[in-house]
Specification:
Blueprint lengths: L4 E4 L4 H12 L5 E4 L7 H11 L12 H5 L9 H10 L8 E4 L2 E4 L11
Parallel strand pairs: 1-2
Antiparallel strand pairs: 1-3, 3-4
Length: 116
């Protein structure tokens, strides 16, 4: 099964643990280092749809970029939030795993097992 994808930050312990868990289960997911290659607006909308979350629900609100980019302005349109998330990918929650037509956030890492 190589139709799995992980939006991964190798510096994040939860992201590394999630990737290891996938590999322990025989998967070789496509690794997307989203800090180097941010998802497109279309991809981010698909992720949000699969997770059934709003943009605000997928943001790391303690990151400095959350406030400095203006994402703490709750009056922003969903389109503008997505645009700013792509411009500031550090605010996107991690890791995100997509597979079998579903998505999960690897916090805790075991939550991605529901995709198998």
């Amino acid at each position: 099964m190589s139709d799995f994808k992980i939006y991964h930050n190798p510096r994040c312990s939860k992201s590394r643990q999630t990737l290891a868990l996938l590999e322990q289960n025989g998967l070789s997911p496509k690794i997307v280092e989203y800090l180097k290659s941010a998802p497109t607006a279309k991809e981010l909308k698909e992720i949000l749809n699969l997770l059934n979350l709003s943009p605000q629900d997928l943001m790391r609100k303690k990151e400095a970029e959350y406030k400095s980019s203006g994402l703490d302005n709750l009056d922003l349109s969903e389109e503008k939030q997505i645009e700013l998330m792509i411009a500031n990918p550090k605010v996107i929650e991690r890791p995100i795993v997509i597979g079998n037509g579903k998505a999960a956030i690897g916090r805790p890492p075991e939550s991605v097992l529901e995709l198998l």
